[in-house]
Amino acid sequence: MPNYIVNNRTQSTGEHEVHTTDCKYFPKIKYYTDLGWHNSCGPAKVAAKKVYANSDGCATCCPDCHTR
Ligand SMILES: [Zn+2]
């Protein structure tokens, strides 16, 4: 089960990306909020939206939750 985080910095398009901690785009510097362990990106994205309403899955590690 992956550990998910949401980037505290927005993408150029304005949304906060959700990543697993082993994603190559995982922010190395601690500019992220820990979302905890989730079975899939679905519940992780729900958790992310409680932090940032404008959250979306990363295309690389969360393709099922990537909508933009
Ligand atoms: Zn990612």
Structural notes for this entry:
With 68 residues, the protein is α+β, with helices and mostly antiparallel strands. The chain has one domain (3-58). Helix content is 16%, strand content 28%. The protein has a 4-stranded mixed β-sheet with strand order 3-1-2-4, covered by helices on one side. The N and C termini lie far apart (24 Å). It binds zinc ion (ZN). Zinc ion (ZN) binds next to loops. The site of zinc ion has 6 residues, from loops.
In spatial order, strands of the major sheet run 3-1-2-4
C-alpha geometry: globular
User: Hey, roughly how much beta strand do the residues contain?
Assistant: 25-35%
The oligomerization state is: single chain
- CA radius of gyration is 10 Å
Question: Considering DSSP H and I runs of 4 or more, what fraction of the residues is helical?
Answer: 10-25%
Q: Would you list the SSEs in sequence order as H and E?
A: EEEHE
**Strand element count:** 4
| N-C termini distance | 24 Å
Look at the structure and give the mean pLDDT: 95
Q: Pairing-aware structural class of the strands and helices?
A: alpha+beta
- List cofactors, ions and other ligands: zinc ion
The overall number of domains is: 1
**Largest pleated sheet:** 4 strands, mixed
User: Helix count?
Assistant: 1
Low-pLDDT stretches are none
List the helices and strands and how they pair.
Blueprint: E1 3-7, E2 16-20, E3 32-37, H1 41-51, E4 55-57
The chain binds zinc ion (ZN).
